[in-house]
Design brief:
Layout (H helix, E strand, L loop, with lengths): L16 H4 L2 H12 L1 H4 L23 H4 L15 H4 L9 E6 L5 E4 H4 L6 E8 L4 E11 H8 L7 E6 L19 E5 H4 L5 E6 L2 E2 L9 E3 L12 E7 L6 H5 L23 E4 L11 E2 L7 H4 L13
Parallel strand pairs: 1-10, 4-11
Antiparallel strand pairs: 1-2, 3-4, 4-7, 5-6, 5-10, 7-9, 11-12
């Protein structure tokens, strides 16, 4: 993969650490620093949700980095390309086709599919296979809520997800970077895990497109490439799906993609990571990568007896 360094943020634009501990203060400072007009699409609603039990209290990555430093190959392989190439991407209207081993297969208008589902905010650590990480406040809902609504059959063991295929709107799909459209999958127990989210936005608000709007997958104990974006298809199946990166480079990217500091990528160690939190010296201070990205208590029981070196 092509890796580019994030541009250092001038010291005048770095939010002091104590502001990260208070959401109201953070957004007030962000609006002043970055300009209220440029943030209007991403600022949260006036009311703030109570802190989630899943939240990390680690320093959050500034909104400017979260929305401008992205892995989204449909809009370019460079980290700085999606924010530019996704600028005119339309996310409404949107539909999701549900098929396979499920009682309620249909093509749903997204608004209808999400009707009655309560959105929430969760601050998750996110780890990229390329050794950089962020702390992001996602806006979304547990995937389990939607799965229960669709009523999968007992025979369904996996869910296969597929991204929109639209080369006229997603320029990198005109290149043979991957076998498009992008596909990913989860085991059913992973999909039903309480940490697994379908996110509709960041920082308390829907969007933006470069972060996967209008709906994307979040599994914070896995590497970031599992987080399929702009989802248009969900298939309930009894067969393990072949994901896009498994097909492209099976020695490097497996189905599980669990964050594991003891299993190196073939081209680099995964023992440390660089946290992007807005400080000019952050990239000079690698931190130790934690097993399952620090979410062991929520997920390790799902992999009991599974050789995680072979099932990477």
């Amino acid at each position: 993969m092509l890796i580019k360094r994030a541009t250092d943020i001038p010291s005048s634009e770095i939010t002091s650490e104590h502001l990260y501990r208070n959401r109201r203060q953070f957004f007030k400072a962000a609006a002043t620093t970055l300009g209220a007009a440029s943030l209007s699409a991403f600022l949260p609603a006036p009311s703030f949700a109570a802190a989630s039990k899943y939240d990390t209290d680690e320093k959050q990555t500034p909104i400017n980095d979260v929305t401008s430093y992205n892995n989204y190959y449909e809009f370019g392989s460079g980290k700085d390309e999606p924010v530019v190439n996704a600028r005119a991407f339309k996310t409404k209207p949107w539909s999701v086709a549900v098929s396979g081993m499920v009682k309620k297969p249909a093509t749903y208008n997204l608004e209808d599919l999400l009707k009655g589902i309560v959105m929430e905010d969760r601050i998750y650590r996110m780890r990229c296979v390329e050794r950089w990480s962020m702390v992001i406040p996602w806006h979304g809902f547990p995937l389990a809520t939607l799965v229960k609504k669709l009523e999968p059959l007992p025979s369904a063991k996996f869910i296969k997800f597929q991204t929109l295929y639209a080369p006229d709107r997603m320029p990198e799909q005109r290149q043979p970077t991957l076998h498009w459209p992008y596909t990913e999958g989860l085991r059913m127990d992973e999909a039903m895990n309480e940490l697994t989210l379908f996110a509709v936005g960041v920082y308390g608000k829907e969007g933006p497109a470069q972060n996967g709007a209008p709906i994307r997958l979040i599994t914070p104990w896995k590497y970031g490439f599992k987080g399929i974006k702009a989802i248009v298809k969900m298939e309930f199946t009894d067969k393990m799906p072949l994901s896009a990166w498994m097909e492209a480079a099976p020695r490097e990217y497996g189905f599980y993609a669990n964050v594991n500091p003891t299993v190196d990528h073939p081209r680099w160690s995964q023992a440390t990571e660089t946290r992007l939190t807005g400080g000019v010296f952050d990239q000079l201070r690698p931190i130790k990568t934690r097993m399952f990205n620090g979410y062991e208590s929520y997920v390790e029981s799902m992999y009991s007896g599974l050789d995680l070196r072979k099932n990477y």
